[in-house]
Amino acid sequence: MPSNMNHQxxxxxxxxxxxxxxxxxxxxxxxxxHKSAGKSSCCIFRLPQSLVEINKEAYQPRxxxxxxxxxxxxxxxxxxxxxxxxxxxxxxxxGKPLGFFMKIIVSLEDRIRECYSESIDxxxxxxxxxxxxxxGVFLIELFRKVGKLVSTQQDDPIFKLSxxxxxxxxxxxxxxxxxxxxVLKRLxxxxxxxxxxxxxxxxxxxxxxxxxxxxxVLKKCENLDGKHLLDFYRxxxxxxxxxxxxxxxxxxxxxxxxxPATKLVNVGVKFKANYQADSFxxxxxxxxxxLIPQINMDDFHSSFFMNCMAFEQCYSSCTKDITxxxxxxxxxxxxxxxxxxxxxxxxxxxxxxxxxxxAKFFKNxxxxxxxxIKTHYLKDLFVELNEYCKNGWHVGxxxxxxxxxxxxxxxxSALAAFMLLSLAALQTVYTVFPYxxxxx
Length: 440
Description:
By secondary structure, this protein is mostly helical.
């Protein structure tokens, strides 16, 4: 009996210890996905592995770390060292002490921490402030130097080495590589000189080296806000897209994804590049003509699309316009033949690789994406296009043309058959006509 009692006592002690550990763990806040990650204030996300696996290179910074998620990465130290030089340039120019900017960021600490989905408690108050000042000033000075508002050293390697620029521009628009936009705006305002333009105009001019947009289009975006740099640049395309009012159509039977480009052509749809559009989101369908803005498919656009989509998937308090666009283009480009058709019509400028690689990209990027077909901005266009594809004489005529006029030999054969039928009909008329004329 004493032995059993000792055993029971030991078991109870172990259970009590485990209960104590479990109780403590219940009170701990989740770190990898913070409990406040669903709030609208949380806008900078560490991506789940399911998204990262699609294309690791699209989300991982290659030469520069911005913010806490990739801070201290040994592979990113080269540009990290230049941040101190940029900070010194700003301090020297403004005459304001470093402590002045540090105190500003410390006062914003709680707001900053609420922006990140993953706990950044490992960074204390001063360390977090140092990171935000260093990264924020680096971005602001970079935009000012490119915008020629401040002088640049003649042989500055950041600007002289041609390989740095494209990597840098892609890195600054990665979802895990962000700091809050309000930090940028505050640091910009406090370091502003009389000749400065707006922060937004400098950002747009900076990225215009990669995506050439008309000055009047950029002007529309100068008062835009954003959660961070990626969100601001994403919004600049959404803000400038043309919204075409359409009659409400609740025909759920035609509210479905659209067919690939080659199949649309077979039922009479024509494609045309829209060179006048303010945004690549300006897609229109008019009487059988699908107007799509020309897009350069390259490493910048593919990275930008994927990071915008990741942001829209993670952040519930934003529209899903970029996701809609990518799903739409993915529907059109199911195969390399579809890509070739769009390239032939000047809608796709292919700097990405082969037609097959572009089709594969859109297929992969649209995989497992949450997409609500009933609420997206192209909903009415999907309905109109699907209705056009199943109704009217143009579908039969398009099928006839596809069957008999797809190649020159098919056209010649069809013409020969038509002439034989015509001659046979005429022969019948001339044979029958004298008979009836004789018996009149």
